[in-house]
Write a structure and sequence with these properties.
The protein is an alpha/beta fold and about 325 residues long. The chain has one domain: NAD(P)-binding Rossmann-like Domain (Rossmann fold, 3-Layer(aba) Sandwich), CATH 3.40.50.720. It is about 40% helix and about 15% strand. It is globular and about 55 Å long. The two termini are about 35 Å apart.
Length: about 325
């Protein structure tokens, strides 16, 4: 199968592409390699994919929000299915640089829908986010819950992506699967995320910023579990059978939560990081940040029931695995 993966130099895109190559697929990677975080990490990921895939991996340094450039890059390229993971990520950065989110997450998503529509593809899987649940207090978050009160622009763009997808599924009967990811972490993770920042600061003897004075809960999901869920979805396009799908659509459009189905207290994770790093953390207790939510917790019953998704990695296993990778990566 020829799979187009956007955000292939990113955290989840890289891990997914590795798994697809390992099972024999041909992967076409797209990424604009922007400087939101260190480009050298993205370059290392691409290099690893080129080594793993050989002539079964092709990489295009391209902004998918640029339709003319995207069309030129994909001209003559065979594609069976798309996994659209590329986006401008980060809740807090959306407050500082809102235009980047509109361009990448709205214009870029529309462009990928257009590619899938005009090529008559039989499935596009795309990344949404648990942030669409906003300040919902009902836990765990279920795909049937209301998602019309986002507390960050990032969340608003991801919900808009879901709505655009619903329109394309309805008008063009394009099979689409949206995935609401919950706090993904693990080897090759993003430097702007908590797990990387805390590990870096603990090992460097610097204070770690602990928001809401540590009273935060997240459904931490290990990267291997995330990738297993994405591939299960990729291989199972929603049917255009007139039946209601998870998320409520009557069109061939399904929405799933992908999480660990456990809401972990932030300070428990800090303790695991301290243990793995072999030193105590200096805590800088801070108030809640704008755009943040108090708790996240994924109801994964829909994807578990329909696709057999079953996460297996606890934070007691995953956190030390990340710290080991972090040490090895920086030792090299």
């Amino acid at each position: 199968m020829h799979v187009l993966v956007t955000g292939a130099a990113g955290f989840i895109g890289y891990a997914l592409a590795q798994r697809l190559l390992a099972r024999g697929d041909i992967v076409i990677g797209i990424d604009d390699m922007n400087a939101y975080y260190q480009v050298s990490l993205k370059e290392d990921r691409v290099r690893a994919l080129q080594e793993a895939g050989g002539n079964r991996f092709a990489f295009h340094r391209q902004d998918f929000a640029d339709m003319a450039g995207l069309a030129a890059a994909l001209d003559g390229v065979a594609i069976d299915r798309i996994v659209h993971l590329g986006a401008q990520a980060g809740v807090r950065y959306s407050i500082e640089n809102p235009h980047a989110y509109v361009q990448a997450n709205l214009v870029g998503h529309l462009n990928m829908l257009e590619v899938a529509r005009h090529r008559g593809l039989d499935h596009m899987v795309y990344a949404s986010s648990s942030s669409v649940y906003g300040g919902n207090t009902k836990l765990p978050f279920a795909v049937e819950d209301r998602t019309d009160h986002p507390v960050s622009l990032y969340a608003a763009t991801k919900r808009a992506d879901e709505l655009m997808s619903e329109t394309y599924a309805h008008l063009y009967r394009l099979p689409l699967t949206g995935l609401r990811f919950f706090t993904v972490y693990g080897p090759w993770g993003r430097p702007d995320m908590m797990m990387w920042k805390f590990t870096h600061n603990i090992l460097a003897g610097k204070p770690i910023p602990v928001f809401n004075h540590g009273d935060m809960y997240r459904d931490f999901t290990y990267i291997d579990d995330i990738v297993a869920g994405v591939i299960a979805c990729l291989d199972s396009p929603p049917a255009d059978d007139g039946r209601e799908k998870a998320g409520g659509s009557m069109a061939p459009h399904v929405l799933y939560n992908i999480g660990n189905h456990r809401s972990e207290q932030l300070m428990k994770v800090v303790g695991l990081l301290e243990e793995a790093c072999g030193r105590k953390a200096e805590l800088e207790m801070l108030p809640m940040q704008p755009g943040d939510v108090h708790k996240t917790f994924a109801d994964i019953s829909a994807i578990s029931r329909e696709l057999g998704y079953a996460p297996t990695t606890s934070i007691e296993t995953g956190v030390p695995a990340f710290v080991r990778w972090y040490r090895d990566y920086h030792a090299g």
